[in-house]
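Milestone M4 deliverable, item 7.
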Amino acid sequence: MRITKIKLENFRSFRAAQTIELAPVTLLFGPNSVGKSSILMALAYVGQILGHGHCDPQHLDALGRRTIGGFRALVYGQDTARSIRIRLDFDSGLTPFSYYDAEVSDMLNHVQASVVLMDDFGGSITHGAVELEIAWSERYQWAYVREYRVWINGGYIGCIHSSDDRRNTVIRELNTRHPLLLPLDHEDLVDNSVPLCEQDDYPTDFELVLAKLNPNPVSAANVADVEGAGQYFVNRVAPISLQCQWGAIPLLGNPVYTNLLGQEFDQADDHLNYLTVRQVLSQAFVLPLDKILNYLENTIQIGPLRLVPDTDYMPNAHPTQSDWVDGAAAWDLLHQNPERQSTIGALLRKTNDWLANSDKLNTGYTLVNESLGQMLGESTVSAPEVGRLLQKRHLWFKDQRTGVRLSANQLGTGISQVLPIIVASYYAPATLVTVEQPELHIHPRFQVELADLFISTCNRHPYLIETHSEHLILRLLRRVRESQENSERLGLAPDQISITYLIPSPEGVVVKRLDVTPDGDFAQNWPGGFFDERDAELF
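Output delivered:
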């Protein structure tokens, strides 16, 4: 699974809805303080809402507990009368959107009953989108998720709505004419003698089951919010009460808890239909959020100012997501014993490959992870205290010419700044790697080689890079051009790179994507005032 688009409305400097399209390598450009880091902040905000219910957070954990000041500081213009909308589009890829349980199929093998037959909703998801609307309650003085909407395979599924007291939470809309919400035998039951324009007037078996199990009458169905859904549909389902948290977010990792009838095994038909409906609703509303939360929890966000560890650096044996912000997690991982953990050994080898190879960074150094005992040639000691001391591991940079070992703070700053990016690129659990200003303190030659690092590893996970580096973009464009000339060379297709420019305006940030042509150029003119400085100095 990967996120393909981020849409922001009334979030920090974004007023009108703006969409950022993500590719395997996405670069964010724009003037200082225009809102590039707000895009990264939006991902951390959604992750904190889904994981902990923090709609009004003072800190964002994924960003190293960066202080943000709560909902008021996040909403556009600090106007709490507005509501924030964040939409994430995704491709499921090879990620399984599976059943929560096999209870229905198991019971059908043992009980004779008339049950509506539905498709494997989760297993049929190829792409989709979720949207959260976060609002402020003046009455209760808290922020909450007012609405949560879902789209699957290009079609609208439905909406969960919450009152501002967070107690009245219901599935307010359900597009029962979505292909995945039609019974398997629906086409067989359609009366072909009825004109097509009138066939939608007849309820499907799924709608009939919902009407029977729902204690709320069908006449209570809300008028379809076509504008919010972005699709014409008729809402034929009465509100379904749903147990939620933090507003309109259903309980994650579990089947939905509703007020539908049939939960007790009084009548086999009703109970099995209830289980079928529960399974469908769970896959429709819970599964997408479960997968997105997992994706965000495994997103690595590296900030612009990265740690330079000294000789007495004490590594964290269990680095967390927040430890990546200053790059500490990379040093923590590399300090672990590679002889006991093959993954660490592989990570060390790949990092050294980029540090030392002449066709890569060519720093002249390799990393050495060894214990004090290995350094001193001491294999056994009598005193346990001394033994523990000799087992303590150190991470050194070994000069390839002289063999001298140096700590990170004895080298130039550039190597320590680029190392966390290399480690993150090969860190297997990562689902997305974001980096703010990777070019800081780095020589232009390192910057262009970083572009090759992103290209060569973007098949493992995509990159979202906030940068001002002309060198980085020039190397990417060169690789696009070269890959078109020779497919065997390292490179990218034009659609594998997304160059997004953020333009400030009195009405909020405007997002403009600059398309890349097969010959490694831009299809549109670069917005004025950026990279024009070079021309001004040369002519």
